[in-house]
């Protein structure tokens, strides 16, 4: 029995969509446009209509990529607007957010250290301190994300 990793299945799905489904969908849209040209633009020659439909088919992947990139960066900008307004209206909010982030980071780190045996059963617990001269303690441990730094 062969076990397929999730990455392989996901990569295969992406290849199928990018290589087969997307061009077929673009072709369908181009065919609809060609039908529109046949019905509504009788003054154009058949060759001109075919060239326009092919151009629509060729431009669609480029537009799709550009719009995906713009949408991704647009969402990031949209998400950053509210904290920006809060910081401009009330400068103390920045300090409050920093304290909240530090508290959350400390809580997550302590949770991971408390439940380390469940998450990482084969890993021995390593205690790190911020300074070499201090005695190691649970409150001074670095999170598992920053251990290599």
TrEMBL record:
Coiled coil: none annotated. GO terms for molecular function: glycerol-3-phosphate O-acyltransferase activity; glycerone-phosphate O-acyltransferase activity. Residues 128-149 are annotated as: Disordered. It comes from Phascolomyces articulosus. Residues 138-149 have a biased composition (Basic residues). Keywords: Membrane, Transmembrane, Transmembrane helix. InterPro entries: GPAT/DAPAT. One of its GO terms (biological process) is phospholipid biosynthetic process. Residues 128-137 have a biased composition (Basic and acidic residues). The chain crosses the membrane at residues 15-38. The keyword Disulfide bond does not apply. It comes from the Eukaryota. This is Uncharacterized protein. The keyword Transmembrane helix applies.
């Amino acid at each position: 029995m062969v076990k397929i990793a999730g990455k392989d299945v996901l990569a295969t799905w992406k290849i199928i969509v990018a290589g087969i489904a997307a061009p077929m969908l673009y072709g369908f849209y181009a065919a609809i446009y060609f039908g529109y040209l046949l019905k509504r633009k009788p003054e154009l020659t058949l060759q001109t209509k075919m060239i326009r439909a092919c151009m629509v088919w060729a431009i669609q992947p480029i537009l799709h990529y550009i719009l995906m990139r713009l949408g991704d960066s647009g969402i990031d900008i949209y998400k950053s607007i509210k904290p920006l307004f809060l910081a401009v209206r009330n400068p103390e909010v920045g300090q409050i957010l920093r304290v909240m982030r530090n508290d959350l980071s400390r809580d997550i780190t302590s949770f991971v250290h408390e439940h380390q045996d469940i998450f990482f059963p084969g890993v021995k617990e390593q205690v790190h301190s911020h300074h070499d001269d201090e005695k190691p303690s649970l409150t001074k441990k670095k999170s598992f994300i920053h251990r290599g730094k």
